[in-house]
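Below is how a single chain appears once it has passed through the pipeline. First comes the sequence as given, then the structure the pipeline wrote out for it. We keep one example in the README because the format questions we get most often are answered faster by looking than by reading.
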Amino acid sequence: MRISLKLFVLLISITLNSNVFAQLNVFSSREAAINTLFPHDNPWMWTSAEGDLTGDGTDDVAMIITLPRNEGEQGYPIEKKVLVLAGLASGGYTLLSVSGTYCDAQKFYNLEIVGSSLFVTAVHKADASGSITHSSQYRFNKKYSDLELIGREDISESFADNSYYRLSINYLNGSSINYEKNKGSAKSTKKTRFHISSLQRLNGFDCEKFVDNAIY
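Resulting structure:
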């Protein structure tokens, strides 16, 4: 049986499109995505932020998801993950990226999307005596269809003794700055340079292991 060239091209096109749609999981809502991606973990959303990370004109959504740890696992009784969904112009979402174990927050998280960057801040302390925060900046990379860690900042401030400490790391140019102020007057700044072969991607990113081995 002979098949015309036009019919052959049409069949190939249908097959390719069918494969694409079969591989592309479309979720009707963020809740549907969470329940589908973590069906046995009793997940719940801590906080979220919306913005156009991918630059396609449709809002994406980033969320902190908490999951109960398995019995016998070390650490806190719940595990946190950063989940990012890409918004579709036709409605709904697809999975863009999901981290491994993410940094813990003793009090709460702040999420913010600015342009193609996602800022994730874990607040460990925030009261009348001072504050301690850990912030990371991720930027969408179209080449990998994922977010990459490009910056980090740790800030500790004590109001009682008027002390202040800030560690700022720029992974794009391989530089870090330590700034410290004691008792409101004595100041010290230390700048260092380092080399990294590649940026850390958000998908599968284990914040706990990364922070333990981070460059200062």
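The CA atoms of residues 62 and 84 lie 4 Å apart.

See the next section for the split statistics.
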